[in-house]
Design a protein that fits this description.
Blueprint lengths: L1 H18 L2 H7 L7 E7 L1 E5 L2 E10 L2 E5 L4 E6 L6 E2 L4 E5 L2 H33 L8 H34 L1 E3 L4 E6 L6 E2 L4 E6 L4 E8 L11 E6 L2 E15 L4 E8 L12 E7 L4 E7 L4 E3 L2 E8 L2 E6 L1 E6 L2 E6 L6 E5 L8 E5 L4
Parallel strand pairs: 1-24
Antiparallel strand pairs: 1-23, 2-17, 3-12, 3-16, 4-11, 5-7, 5-10, 6-9, 7-8, 9-11, 12-15, 13-14, 13-16, 14-15, 17-22, 18-19, 19-20, 20-24, 21-22
Helix pairs in contact: 3-4
């Protein structure tokens, strides 16, 4: 009976040994396993401020209807929807035959008034030279001076009439008041447009800014020049507060705030595109942060592996808010600690490691 028990115990021990992982057996061998290859990243201190997302939109600082400055029939439309125009480009023309005739008529009227003025000035000058002679008549001289004054006024009036005629002729050519893109043609060739009628809708898609309706209780952290992040179609763009509109919406208890986009990101976007503005809700402060890939969850604990002297040491950490690709660390790490961010999934505390210096 005693021999059977010994044999059974030996068989049990042999089975246990056979089921042990090869790695565990290898660790008992002289020299142990080769060090695991890891990549590391330093724990850093960086400024952090909590933000809250507010859905806004992109708006153009210049957009609207280009109206007719004079009444008239449309002679030709030079642009179509989607065309880009520069400031001063010709977009439409009104029929201008009668306006050209009016300019010539006013030029003739001005020349006539100037000729009459020249004659009266010569007559007045001749009478003035007779001032010391017996033929001088003071009354006639005063009448000539009055005629000269009257004709000078007529010349001034003729000049003004000519200027108005030239302006009307110039207004027959409807030009772009600023650079932008045509969004709507509101008339066509042959149509008659009265004074002030819309002709073309234009939007400056190269001068965009973000606008968001901010709740009144979130306005404390905003002031002109305050830096924020605006997210548009998955792209994060730096921006700053340009203006806080001093009018509150009584229904939503919000105020409109305009944000100036920085850099060359405006060319990628269009007006009315959704923009998520991350507004600050607290004062900025310096925090300790760790790379997100350093975080490992094991048995309900949040851990990282700190690499020191080619050895990985497990450390339990407490995390705070995310900052982009990092996490705020409230406990467990110090600035300057090197933590494993690649090859850390199967590490054990005290395991030898080799840092991949080329990563």
């Amino acid at each position: 009976m005693k021999l059977r028990v010994t044999t059974a115990a030996a068989a049990f021990m042999a089975a246990v040994i056979l089921t042990l992982p090869r790695q565990a057996l290898a660790e008992n061998e002289p020299g142990g396993p080769p060090p695991s290859l890891v990549q590391v990243d330093a724990v850093i201190s960086e400024p952090f401020g909590q933000t809250a997302p507010v859905i806004g939109r992109l708006v153009s600082r210049q957009s609207g209807v280009v109206a007719a400055r004079i009444a008239g029939a449309v002679a030709k439309m030079h642009v179509h929807v989607g065309d880009h125009v520069e400031e001063g480009d010709l977009m439409a023309e009104l029929v201008s035959d009668s306006l050209q005739v009016e300019v010539r008529r006013m030029e003739a009227a001005l020349q006539r008034a100037e000729a009459e003025l020249a004659i009266r000035k010569n007559e007045s000058e001749r009478l003035r030279r007779l001032r010391n002679s017996a033929a001088f008549q003071q009354g006639q001289y005063e009448d000539k001076k009055l005629e000269v004054t009257t004709l000078e006024s007529r010349v001034t009036e003729a000049n003004a009439d000519l200027e108005i005629a030239r302006l009307n002729l110039d207004y027959a050519s409807i030009r772009a008041p600023y650079s932008g893109t045509v969004t709507l043609r509101q008339t066509s060739a042959g149509a008659y447009v009265p004074l002030g009628a819309p002709v073309i809708s234009l939007v400056n898609d190269e001068a965009l800014e973000a606008e968001a309706d901010i709740p009144s209780d979130r306005m404390a952290g905003l002031h002109p020049g305050r830096a924020v992040i605006v997210e548009i179609a998955g792209v994060e763009a730096p921006a700053s507060v340009r203006a806080l509109v001093p009018v509150e919406n009584p229904l939503t208890r919000t105020r409109a705030v305009r944000f100036t986009l920085e850099g060359d990101v405006q060319a990628q976007f269009t007006p009315n595109q959704t923009a998520i503005v991350h507004i600050p809700v607290g004062e900025r402060r310096d925090v300790v942060s760790v790379h997100k890939d350093a975080i490992v969850n094991r048995q309900g604990e949040t851990i990282v592996f700190v690499v020191t002297d080619s050895t990985a040491q497990m450390r339990t950490v407490q995390l705070g808010e995310p900052i982009g690709g990092r996490f705020v660390v409230t406990r467990g790490l110090s600035v300057g600690d090197n933590v494993a961010i690649r090859g850390n999934e199967r590490l054990r505390s005290g395991q030898p490691v080799r840092v991949d210096e080329g990563a």
